[in-house]
Amino acid sequence: MEKNEYALDYILQAEYNLLRKQFIPGIIVIPSGKSNLIWNGVHFISQGPYEGGVFRFSILIPNTFPDGDCPQVYFSPSVYHPQMSAQTGELDIKRYFPVWKRNGHHLWQVLRYIRRIFQKIEITNAINLDAAQLYEHDPGAFLLKVSECVNQSKDNIYIPDSLTSDDPHAIVFTPWNERLQMVQQHLLAGTKQAFDNIQGLSWMKPGVYQILTREDTLTSHQN
């Protein structure tokens, strides 16, 4: 049974507030600007066979949430992994959540599972049989496939995801601007004169997962 729109909004806001209290390294997620039933995410992987990968994904939440079926997770593009469909990029969530329990399961746990699959690779009941067989019988060839996937994700980091290109809350990246090195130095030194004519509120340097934000924007964005 479809829920009242306002009741569902309240439930999803509560879920997002719970998520913000969790420590899930390497994952950024934000509700879509088109529908609160879609959450856009990016996973930065810092260790393991997928180290260096920057993988985009979307969480699709059923309109009966938190009752009924479990959410769906799709990676775009698909990642070479035994638990992910090579054709659609769908991650096998039901492997970990065979039945979604209203009072026992939360969306932050889905993010934890996403992080886990890239750290501990399991091949039983695999979705991508080719990846599972290669992992078991030829680990070297499997790692080569994974490396290609990781490199592709980094090559495509500045290319907008076609599935979220019209989403005002899409997570997008722009190339590093050398001018911002000076801004970073002044920011860390506590001075502000370098901010003149600089557009944007936060930025990241490739290979360094540290977000720098102008101090004079924090209050307005937290209220």
Automatic annotation (TrEMBL):
PROSITE patterns: UBC_2 (PS50127). It comes from Rotaria magnacalcarata. Residues 7-155 form the UBC core domain. Pfam families: UQ_con. SUPFAM superfamilies: UBC-like. InterPro entries: UBC, UBQ-conjugating_enzyme/RWD. This is UBC core domain-containing protein.
